[in-house]
Amino acid sequence: MRKRLVLQGITQTFDDGGSQRTILDQLDLQVGEGELVAVMGPSGSGKSTFLSIAGALLEPTDGEVLLDGTSIMGKSKTDISDVRLRQLGFIFQSANLIPYLKVEEQLMVVAKLAGMDKSKAERRAGELLETVGLSHRRKAYTDKLSGGERQRVAIARALMNDPAVLLADEPTASLDAERGLDIVGTIARLVKEQGKSAVMVTHDERILPLCSRVLFLEKGKLVAH
Fold first, then answer.
1. Beta bridge partner(s), residue 63
2. Fewer CB atoms inside 10 A, N or C side of the chain?
């Protein structure tokens, strides 16, 4: 199984009033093609820091992040921005949609940033919206959508540039149980069908049976219980 996301020996320290505080301590993680890995842990355990490093938003103090076998360490800001745009897909707690764009346009703007041909982008947007069950809403503005529909748009947008890795930060936090299960079920299905690797930070124990693995962030390391 190809490991599309690999974190090796990730350490993150911060200066805390003159002393060094270690948030992540030689953390390792490998996520295979088709896997959705849930990461849990109490507030302050370093989940946000972990996700920021996996998502190329924060460079670790030490260690290496590999996407599709290639390290992203030491790249320029421009190259890192390109990595985030083309190789990573983000799904947030709130869908973070652009309020003045219609559903289809939410996907098209991402494709435009990546320089995708317009006709190809239109085809892909249509396919993704059909996949997440929102073809009939493609011309709707986001304020007309339910919470679950907005998150499905966010999933389609995250997949628009065919990234290697999906990263989800508490994607069910603003949803009721039924919609939360539907959203994570959709993520799990698409990750498997499209051969992505995915990591989801969550506090929602209801959706854990839908994940390939569940890991806990403890003392700066990821451990299975």
1. none
2. C
Q: State the helix-helix crossing angle for 147-159 and 118-131, rounded to 10 degrees.
A: 140
Per DSSP, the three-state class of 48 is: helix
- Check residue 129 and give its pLDDT: 95
Surface-to-core class of residue 17, CB atoms within 10 Å of its CB (0-12 exposed, 13-18 middle, 19+ buried) = exposed
Q: 32 forms bridges with which residues in the sheet?
A: 3
Residue type, 128: L
Report d(CA 137, CA 209) in Å as an integer.
30
Helix ranges (H only) for the chain are 47-54, 77-86, 103-113, 118-131, 147-159, 177-194
42: which residues sit within 8 A by CB, 6+ positions away?
Answer: none
Number of domains in the chain: 1
CA–CA distance, 165 with 31 (Å, rounded to integer): 9
Predicted pLDDT of residue 175: 87
- CA dist 45 and 38 (Å) reads 15
What is the per-residue pLDDT for 94? 83
For residue 57, what are the domain limits? 3-224
- The residue behind tokens 């490998």 is 30
Token pair of 5 as six digits: 């996301």
- Burial of 61: CB neighbours in 10 Å, binned 0-12, 13-18, 19+: middle
Residue with tokens 């890192």: 80
- Please report the pLDDT score of residue 10 as a whole number: 97
Collect the ranges in the chain with pLDDT lower than 50. none
